[in-house]
Amino acid sequence: MARTWERSKLSIWVWCVLAGSCLGRFVVEKNSLKVSTPASLKGSYESAIGNFGVPQYGGSMPGTVFYPKDNRDACESFENFNASFKSATRQLPIVLLADRGVCYFTLKAWNAQNGGAAAILVADDRDGDLITMDTPGEDHGDSGYLQNITIPAALIKKSLGDDIKKALSDGDMVTMHLDWTEALPHPDERVEYEFWTNSNDECGPKCDTQIEFVKNFKGAAQILERKGYAQFTPHYITWFCPPEFLSSDQCRSQCINNGRYCAPDPEQDFGKGYNGRDVVLQNLRQICLFKVANVSSKPWLWWDFVTDFAIRCPMKEEKFTKECAEKVIQSLGVDLEKINECIGDTDTDVDNPVLKAEQDAQIGEGSRGDVSILPTLIINNRQYRGKLDGGAVLKALCAGFQETTEPAICLSSDIETNECLENNGGCWQDKVAKITACRDTFRGRVCECPLVQGVKFVGDGYTHCEASGTLHCETNNGGCWNDTRGGRTFSACVDDSSTGCKCPPGFTGDGVNSCEDVDECKEKKVCQCPECKCKDTWGGFECTCSSGLLYMREYDTCISTHSAKKSNFGGFFWIVIFGLAAAGVGAYVVYKYRIRSYMDTEIRSIMAQYMPLDGHVEVPSHGSHTDI
Ligand SMILES: *[C@@H]1O[C@H](CO)[C@@H](O)[C@H](O)[C@H]1NC(C)=O
Ligand SMILES: *[C@@H]1O[C@H](CO)[C@@H](O)[C@H](O)[C@H]1NC(C)=O
Ligand SMILES: *[C@@H]1O[C@H](CO)[C@@H](O)[C@H](O)[C@H]1NC(C)=O
Ligand SMILES: *[C@@H]1O[C@H](CO)[C@@H](O)[C@H](O)[C@H]1NC(C)=O
User: Fold this and answer.
1) 148 CA to centre of ligand 2 in angstroms
2) What's a GO biological-process term for it (predicted)?
């Protein structure tokens, strides 16, 4: 009896460490959700990225929200309700809104995906901070579909969910963008990433996922590392035995170095098979292998070791031993003696510097938060959320490079998305000129106005793009007529127009081959007042007034500067002065504002590398949840 009691208490302790609620700061990774219609909801909102599915790191996705009539918690297959969310061509993808509760988050996402939805938003059913939606553990039913979830999933606050539901019931169309561009920092041309893992291979789907990931990702990881694009560090979570349990069988069988470093029993049965202690020892061996390999500048050998070890030394075949591990080490040509030196004496009551450093690293610094979900991938000091799958992770890593510095592997067709093939990816296009704003990249498809033959197009990329200024006229004068005479240059290229060439005022013609001077005096009938004397010039005209009168171009008339007209002219004069002053103040305000907002983004982008800013603040929460 006493033993059972102690055991349940111990498993509560183990559970609380695993779930992170004892350690405190669990970080909920966010992406932003931008609602564009209806106007009453327009704005940016936070949503918490689910720890499954494939978030489009570095990219964004537009969509219209659909809230089903039946099966609102998405716990049943939508086939049973004859519902389909496949968007017709030329329609935005459908984002399914589902209620939290009743079943696992993963099941909701799976049903949404099978129904044809492009993403799922789960509306929280209680007020409070967002949590990370996690995958169910091994003891929970059939999770065979888990690895097949490919749509992104995010949790939104109850208040936003309620607002969207209300708008939909009022007959409004709710459109939005899910945006992951700021979900990962991308400061430079090298990505630092960490993988928090475990040598245990008998913990159900989580362990299977882990080893599958390492196998799948090994190739890409090694290329990135060998070429210096990425710096990878593996990490292992351990925890310590609470002092009151130090002499218990449990801690003895789970821990090394007198309760300092422990791992949970693989079978959760202390009498059977391998113990937590065996797992900690293998973990330690794997870190030491990495350290030794890293010193000899071959850190990527860790990937070989871990995959080989999983194949050659599985627990199932009772080969999870020191001897088996050492054979693998030797076959990789790593110095075994140095590794054993690093492992040190595990039976005595002393600190192990390597494991101690791991425990310290577990506590999050800055924006990262504590590591409490195993396995966890950390990219540029931010926790990766989503499916642990080679392609999805590579996409996320690629999003960690500063744009244009990403290595070739990121631009390979393997991870491009071909989203532009269908419905032009929902982006702007000019079918006649065959110009499109859709571009397939590892960041997902992006709607970005293109650069066509030296002409930069500008616009939102979705509804409009137009040929823009400077570049357009700089190259060969945009293909338009230009001429210089007597120090005056006229050009038919208009900087802010997509309409090609247009003769400047004072000229007429096609704008491409020629622009002819207009004789304003004759054709436009300017400068025709009795006191006026008109003279045509190239590109304009000159008007002079007789007998001391002054020509006012705006009014095309000659006025007296003397008494009779004085008050009139004075009023006009002040209007002009006042107008000029107002324009000056206006321009100054615009200038100040632009400088301010420019400085703002510059400073923010620098600051963002050091601390979370309000755009993507992370609110510590009490853990992750798998369901209801
Ligand atoms: C679904 O459609 C089928 C055939 O069109 C029909 O027999 C069935 O009753 C429908 N089910 C529901 C729930 O509407
Ligand atoms: C998941 O995908 C795999 C491979 O594509 C397939 O064999 C398997 O049946 C799928 N699982 C489910 C539950 O659909
Ligand atoms: C691995 O080696 C690199 C350079 O040789 C070093 O900067 C890095 O800190 C090392 N990593 C670990 C975990 O020792
Ligand atoms: C016309 O524009 C081109 C390109 O901007 C420039 O090189 C050329 O000198 C211009 N010609 C005249 C006559 O101004």
Assistant:
1) 6
2) protein targeting to vacuole
